[in-house]
Amino acid sequence: MGDLMKDDNKTKKQLVHELTELRSQNAALKKSESAEKYRSLVENIRDVIYELDSQGVVLYISPVIRDMLGYDSAEIVGKNFIELAHKDDLSGLAEWFSELRKGVESPSEYRIIKKSGELRWARTKTRPIMEDGQFKGARGILIDITDQRRVEEALRESEKKYRWMVHNMADVITVIDMNLRFTYVSPAIMRLRGYTAEEATAQTFEQVMTPESLQIIAKVFEEEMKLEASGTADPGRGRILELEQYKKDGSIVWIENDLSFIRDEAQKPVGIISLSRDITDRKRAEEELLSKAKSLEELNTALNVLIDHYKNDQREFEERIMSNIRVSIIPYIEKIKRTRLDIDQSALIEIIERNFRDISSPFLKSISSEYFRFTTKEIEIVSLIKDGKTTKEIAQILYIGKRTVDSYRDNIRGKLRLANKKVNLKTYLLSISNT
Hints:
Layout: H1 2-6, H2 12-44, E1 48-53, E2 58-61, H3 65-69, H4 73-76, H5 90-101, E3 108-113, E4 119-131, E5 134-144, H6 146-168, E6 172-177, E7 182-185, H7 189-193, H8 197-201, H9 205-208, H10 211-230, E8 239-246, E9 252-263, E10 269-278, H11 280-337, H12 343-358, H13 362-367, H14 376-386, H15 391-398, H16 402-415, H17 425-433
Helix pairs in contact: 11-12, 14-16, 15-16
């Protein structure tokens, strides 16, 4: 510039022209530097920047498209942007581009096909280029939202499963605020009490609970709030209550309620959640069992009374028999014994007398029990052995041989579990009679 101004021979007009040209060169240089900075920014930004003509043909797309779709910029420039979209999204994109041509700026989400064939979800933020009311093209940003869509889809599926579970589970989920007002009741309440979820949520505790159950609720709530105030209670604790509630038809249903506090980040109770189920059949079964148990207890008492009466009657009967034997039989046996009897007759009279005396004897009752399974003849021999009779004497009294008596003795020892034991049979029998 200094050289230009030094030339004194140039006219003023020439100098002005040269100065104008110099300014123009400086402006072009600055524009070039600015464009370079813009290009550097565009090419290094994470999101894809693009420009379309009025027909949707790509005029420019930033190189970062390679990271998103695997294409170089040159492979996409000159193509219509719709060529990269999934076929199921074409109609929606055509409608979106039609609105864009009218100057309406709106975001769009669609599936885009990578060079490898893999599908990715993209969101566009596009601004139309309008000149004199005419659509000349558009510029925008293309953002990969595939991971976001997957998270959203997973959340929708999770919410769908949760909603299905809540709607179809037999148990009722209820949420109550700290003022004991219902804030949520699951649809299963229809099966439990006949109300819709909306109707049940609008009810008060007085409309739901019987007076007895209301008292239980009030008492438990007071206990739990005292525990909270103490600061020592387990925040994860719960209570299970069996309460009576009214159904829509006016009948009463027994419900088991599993209750626990809902807490905020500071572990302060902000509500109550309840999981409720119908236990009416179980309560009826319990009542029936209690009724049957009471009936059995009464029956057992009656049986004990009957057994006591039977024992008393039996005792009286035995006492009458013993009295009759002592009064009506024994005196006559004594008179017979004083008469002239031969040895055999005396032995028989002794047996008769002894048997009468042993009729009510505890020894005779025990020795003839089913446990020992003694025969009538064995019982006779047991009595004679206990009285100290020898084998010979027993044989003479019962008119049987000594070998037969020995055989009976062996049988008796076997039934008394004395076989092969050096135990005196008489001594053992006497020990039994004393127990």
